[in-house]
Amino acid sequence: LKATEDLHEEAAPALAQSERKRHEFNRQVTVQWKEKDFQGMLECHKEGEALLILNLVTDLKPHMLLDTVPCLPAYILYMCIWLADHTNDDLKLHSLMTSTTNGTKKVLKKHSDDFEMTSFLLSNTCHLLHCLKPYSGDEGFMTQNTAKHNEHCLKNFDLTEYCQVLSDLSIAIYQQLFKIAEGVLQLMIVSAMLENESIQGLSGVKPTGSQKHSSSMGDGDNSYHLEAIIRQMNAFHTVMCDQGLDPEIILQVFKQLFYMINAVTLNNLLLRKDARSWSTGMQLRYNISQLEEWLWGRNLHQSGVVQTMEPLIQAAQLLQLKKKTQEDAEAICSLCTSLSTQQIPPLNEFEEKVTVAFIQTIQAQLQEQNDPQQLLLDVKHMFPVLFPFYPSSLTMESIPACLNLEFLNEVDACLV
Length: 416
Known about the structure:
By secondary structure, the chain is mostly helical. It has a domain at 4-175 and 388-415. The protein is 55% helix and 1% strand. It has helices at 7-10, 12-22, 49-58, 72-86, 90-110, 115-132, 139-142, 147-151, 160-195, 209-214, 226-242, 247-271, 278-297, 310-320, 326-335, 344-348, 356-366, and strands at 41-43, 409-411. α5 (90-110) packs parallel to α9. Mean pLDDT is 77; it is low at 1-38, 208-221 and 396-400. GO terms for molecular function: GTPase binding. Residues 1-21 are annotated as: Disordered.
């Protein structure tokens, strides 16, 4: 097999023509295949394989597939894999799968800070898995197949190992996707959630020079409002939806992002004495409600996304509670179920008019709780990512020929 780095050299003779034709791509989704009896197999000769990987993986840009079937490259690749299986060509199958995987890794490394490209890679890699699983002959994945789908099942090869490789690659792509989103949002969180006034008439927490210097969330010179976070999340959401990323994966991305917003905000709240006030609690609760409203508006409130914000919600409520009597102490202990015994007193011990005796009462009641003795949340904590199986509604012959793949031959399955 040729190394991925040799792909450009191998494809050089055909590359000039390929580039000239790219601006003429047909964006319609109703293009008919040339052969009347075409059943969904595509033949890629050895000399055209490098160009295939260039057009579908290493040189393909997301904007080139606007208004086409989402994840079209994954379907085209499977059509070539299907023929390799049908003709019992082990070398061709291995070459296609290896070139696709290596090409994806190359693009992933090259675009390590590009959210759109990383989302594009994740969507296509997952959909290639969705193609391999129902057509692999595994009865567990064939239950939702139609009769037409079953006609496309692989006959000769067990793709379990290849599926595992693609699954591992999907995890790596997902982690890069979150890392990029995290890097963009983390600079905004402290300023937007704690320092900027979101309710008119309340004085927000203003960073002092020393606080600017000590903040790990940015250089302290930039000021962000909550709208900046919401606009950025809208951009992330639009990109992932437009590229056909599975809804469950989108949910997991935002669950991880909302956990990070919760952890960064709560940690800064715990470390900053000037933030522990009734007005900060009001501002914070309002900001959280705006984020919750955004989640509901995009049907992302499920699967534990909102629950990741529960510690911050309870901290905001805690700042607004009365803190004088035994009843107040009991109310605080019953409310703060998502906060550890180490996190509750620091939120209030510097607040004006809270007595030492009241703090001691809280501590005495909390000693009965058996929870982790932690003060700060782990900002880098990652939830396990799951890639659920989605059966495709497309049959192979319905996929449009809108990529620059004239060098591929459509194959009548009856003639193979």
